[in-house]
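Final report, Chapter 2: Outcomes

The project's central promise was a pipeline that accepts a single protein chain and returns its three-dimensional structure in a standardized token representation, suitable for archiving and comparison. That pipeline is now operational. To close this chapter, we reproduce one record exactly as it appears in the project archive, with the input sequence first and the structure output second.
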Amino acid sequence: MVYSEGHWRLLRRLRARAEKLMKPLIEHGLRPIVYGSIARGDVREESDIDVFIPYPVGSAMLELYLEEVGIKPWKRVLVQATPSYVPKAYIFIDEKTSVSYPLSKMRKEEEEFYKLAGQLGWEQLKRDERVPGMNKQLILIVPSPEGHLEMPVERSVEEAAKILEVSPTTLRKRVQVLKRRREVGRTGVYRKVEIPEDKTVEEVFQQLLARDPALRRRLRTIS
């Protein structure tokens, strides 16, 4: 794929917005990443800006850092994809822009998810780097000077895993999940709770822990 000048302009615009969101977090000592099409380069007008902090942080502190530079949260949502996955908090700035973080330590395979999609740290983003990653159509996107190369992941999982620097097992699991969604349709997530304005993410999380034994077991398995 060869990118047009319009594509490059769109990529620069979306990356500038990601930088604006990440900068106050970096200045306060956090280590956010941006992942997905912005990291790979294959953006579209409807592409999301997904910033992720790969470890638990305090929600009030995080929101304060954003508000200090005029970035006001639109809504806050607690999401757990499946009963076995780590719960995450999402601070949405608008419908397409969010900062998220896990509410407990992640397993290695959960951390590798972001490598699968393609992820960039702050310094890489500032250097305008692009990295390989797999999109939701199971296509491996490999950046090139003119745009990117494409390779169906299922054609060679081992080769794709080597390029992505993840385990083949993790990649196969992700392929299975995405294929399942494509075949039967998106069935939603296991848990999705919007946080009321008068409560913190932590308060809602503790309430869920108190009444959900499965969630408590999930946390114990990685403590």
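Archive annotation: The chain has a mean pLDDT of 93.
This record, like all others produced under the grant, will remain available to the consortium after the project formally closes.
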